[in-house]
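Internal QA ticket QA-208
Title: Verify multi-chain structure generation after dependency bump
Assignee: T.L.

Test input:
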Amino acid sequence: MPQTNSSAHPADPLPGGAGEALRGRLSAASPAASAAEGACAEAEALARAQAGDHQAFSQLYGLHKRRIYSLCLRMVGNIAEAEDLTQEAFLQLHRKIASFRGDSAFSTWLHRLAINVVLMRLRKKGLTQISLDEAMEPAGEERPGRSFGEQDPALSGAIDRMALQKAIDELPAGYRLIFVLHDIEGYEHNEIADMLECSIGNSKSQLHKARLKLRAALRIHPQGEGRR
Amino acid sequence: MSENGKNIQCAEFQDQLPELIGSGADAGAHPHVQSCELCRALLADLETIAEAARQLFPVVDPPDELWEQIESAIKSEQQTSGTNEKG
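Actual output:
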């Protein structure tokens, strides 16, 4: 499972003001000291939020809103829907925060919770079902070798960011989901298979097809054409 | 299928690619890739796309009013559960 940026283990709050003392010792403004200070602040906010402190919950929101919103945005590619899903993820967090036991880093746990919220939404829309159906298509339909030829050069090595972004946005939802989970978020195929309730082979196959679709899109819209 | 993998066709190699890449194997070391320019280009493109995508998405802030909406939804849920408990 990917470790998130704020992955210092925040499971148990430091007892008896130890966090305060630690912050004092780490007061030098080094990156390590800042990271440790951030972890302490999160651990304290987490403990208080678990006890029902609303202010502490808003602190946790402040610490994690960017990553969760960005994750939702990548997965669905739609701002309004990403906002809605972020709201739902933090509502779920509010309902479940007392059940967090620190078996993993809090940020990892929250990340997974948000992914589940997105998947639930997509399942309601039937999109993951569509993606599985897509994976069952005959492989020959998407085999890139068919389009190869001397007049069909490979990508030049550097990819236009706007063109790639557009190509990802235009991926079918199921392909996009697996592409984002694997290539952007860093989940392994067994974890994706577990989340999507599909086989590991399906996950590999869909990721491959997603990349082939992106490649095809980028060959049609080579560098610069995606920029408007 | 060829015994040594050198003479298999592109189609056959590409059918094996998802498993090959997904398993973390060095697909570039496959005998077919060594002798096939097209499949070598395909692999290079797929790697370039994956690498470019990893650097593509910036981390962005949600709009400020989102917290107000979340706060409001939390209060609404708490009121509902409070009403249910009283009832």
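Spot checks passed. The radius of gyration of chain B is 26 Å.
Status: verified.
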